[in-house]
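Journal club prep, notes for RB
We'll compare a predicted complex against what the paper describes. Inputs for the 2-acetamido-2-deoxy-beta-D-glucopyranose case:
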Amino acid sequence: MFFYLRNRSVRIIILGFVILSIYMYYRTTVDSYNNFIEFVNTSNFSSNRELQFDNVTVELSFMLLQKNTSFEHPVTKSSISHNANNLSISTSASPQSILLINNSISLQVNNSNITSALPLKLLVTNSSFATLIHDDTARAIYQGGHDVTVPEKCPMNGKNMNLVIVVTSAPSHIEARTAIRQTWGHFGQRTDVSIVFILGTTNDHKLEKLLQYEQKLYADIIRGRFIDSYNNLTLKTISSLEWKDTFCSDAKFLLKTDDDMFINVPRLLSFIKAHDTETNVIYGRLAKNWKPIRNKKSKYYISLEQFKQKVFPDFTTGPAYLLSKDVVHKLYEAALDQTYLKLEDVFTTGIVAHKIGIKRIHVSEFLNKKISYNPCNVQRGISLHMVKYGEQFDLWKKLLDGKSKC
Ligand SMILES: *[C@@H]1O[C@H](CO)[C@@H](O)[C@H](O)[C@H]1NC(C)=O
Ligand SMILES: *[C@@H]1O[C@H](CO)[C@@H](O)[C@H](O)[C@H]1NC(C)=O
Ligand SMILES: *[C@@H]1O[C@H](CO)[C@@H](O)[C@H](O)[C@H]1NC(C)=O
Ligand SMILES: *[C@@H]1O[C@H](CO)[C@@H](O)[C@H](O)[C@H]1NC(C)=O
Ligand SMILES: *[C@@H]1O[C@H](CO)[C@@H](O)[C@H](O)[C@H]1NC(C)=O
Ligand SMILES: *[C@@H]1O[C@H](CO)[C@@H](O)[C@H](O)[C@H]1NC(C)=O
Ligand SMILES: *[C@@H]1O[C@H](CO)[C@@H](O)[C@H](O)[C@H]1NC(C)=O
Ligand SMILES: *[C@@H]1O[C@H](CO)[C@@H](O)[C@H](O)[C@H]1NC(C)=O
Ligand SMILES: CC(=O)N[C@H]1CO[C@H](CO)[C@@H](O)[C@@H]1O
Ligand SMILES: CC(=O)N[C@H]1CO[C@H](CO)[C@@H](O)[C@@H]1O
C-alpha cells in the first residue's frame, strides 16, 4: 500500500485527517494505563492497492483522543520513508514519530513507545491527498497462496469435473479424515469428483510430522497460510475459495464442508445434474433473520464496528454448502475487501454473497444437523452433521444398503 508521486514537483502530501483507532498500553515509570488514540476523518476514499511510496515530506493533521480528552495536533513537514515492507512516518510534533512496520503501528509519544498491532492501510485519493485508516478487512490478515497445493487433485483445472469437495479440517483431526477416506471419500476416485482436505499451519512439530506422513500416504491435503484456529475459520474458507479459483476453476461446483459431516455424494451428484445450468448461486440450508450477538462474553460476539445492522443477510449454514463455479472467483475477491468476521458462514454466504448479489437457495436435503440414522434418512439427505468417527462407517453401510425401501 504505497503511494507513487506522479507529479514530482508535488513535495507535499496532505496526509489529512486520519481515521485510526488503537488501544495502547502506555507505560510510564509511575504507572501503566490504557490510552485510546483515534485519528478521525469522516470521509472515505477509493483505495489503490498498487501504491508506491517515495521519501516525501508530508503535512500531517490528525486528532488524538486520549481517554476523555481530545486535542488536535497539526503536524507539519513530517517525512515518510519507505523500504520493502516498512513505511515510516516521522513528525516533529507529538506524537513525535509514527512507525508502521508490517501493518502494525508504533507511536512515539513523549519519548515513550506505544505499539499497536492493528492493521492499517493508506487510502489515496489523488497524488496529494492520503488518509491512514484502520484496516479491518480480511485482506489485512489474509496471506494469499498455499504451502501445499496438490494440483494433481484437479487435472486440467477441473475441466471434466462436476464436483470438487473441500473438507475443512484441523491438523489434529486425523481420525476424522481417515474415516472420510474410508467411507464417502471413496467417491473422490471418480474422474468427475475430487475430494481434498484443507488445513492451516500448526506449531506442534510432532503433529506436523504426522501430517507430513499422512500427506505422503494420501496426497489430499491443502495447506493454507494461517494458524489453524477457530478464529481463523473464515480464513480457511477464503483459502478454499482461492485454491478452487487457482487450481480447479473449471470444476462445475464446489462443496465446502467439514470433517464431521457425512456427505451422500451420489445424491449430491444427482442434485448437481438437475441444476447443471444454474449460475450465481449458493445452495444449502438457509438461515434467515439471524441476529448478531452483542454480548461481549459470547464466543460469537460481533461488535457494531464489525457489523452494524440488526439482522444478518440470509446465509447458508457452514457445515455444507454448494457453490456454482462462477461465484468462486468473485466471492473470493469480495471477501478480501469485507470487514473480517470469524463466523465463516455468515461472512461468506451471508454478508459477502449478499453484497455482490449471489443468490442463496434453500435445499431441504442439506440437513446439516444430527438426525436419526435410519437408512431412509441417510439415503434422502445430502449432508448430515455431527458425525463421529465410528458413525461414518455405519452411515456408509446404510447408504450402500440397497435393500431398504424408502
Ligand atoms: C529514503 O530515505 C532513506 C533514508 O534516508 C534512504 O536510505 C533511501 O534511499 C531513500 N529512498 C529513496 C527512494 O530515495
Ligand atoms: C470518561 O468519562 C466518563 C464520565 O466522567 C467515565 O464514566 C468514563 O469511564 C470515562 N472514560 C474513560 C475511557 O476514561
Ligand atoms: C524495517 O524497519 C526496521 C526498523 O527501522 C528495520 O529494522 C528493518 O530492517 C526494516 N525492514 C525492511 C524490510 O526494510
Ligand atoms: C515483515 O514481514 C516480512 C514478511 O512477512 C518479514 O520477512 C519481516 O521480517 C517483517 N519485518 C519486521 C520488522 O517485522
Ligand atoms: C506529552 O507531554 C505533554 C506535555 O508535557 C502532555 O501535555 C501530554 O499529555 C503528554 N502526552 C501523553 C500521551 O502523555
Ligand atoms: C522506541 O522504539 C525505537 C525503535 O524500535 C527504539 O529505537 C527506541 O529506543 C524506543 N524508545 C523507547 C523510549 O523505548
Ligand atoms: C485531492 O483530494 C482531496 C480530497 O478529496 C481534494 O480536496 C483535493 O482537491 C484533491 N486534489 C487534486 C489535485 O485533485
Ligand atoms: C489465527 O488465529 C490465531 C489464534 O486464534 C491468531 O493468533 C492468528 O493471528 C490468526 N491469524 C492468522 C493469519 O494466522
Ligand atoms: C472529521 C474530518 O476532519 N473530516 C475530514 C476528512 O477529510 C476530508 C477531505 O479533506 C475533509 O473534507 C473532512 O472534513
Ligand atoms: C464521504 C464519502 O466519500 N463517502 C463514501 C464512502 O463510501 C461509500 C461506499 O463506497 C460511498 O457510498 C460514500 O459516498
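Talking point for the session: The radius of gyration is 25 Å.
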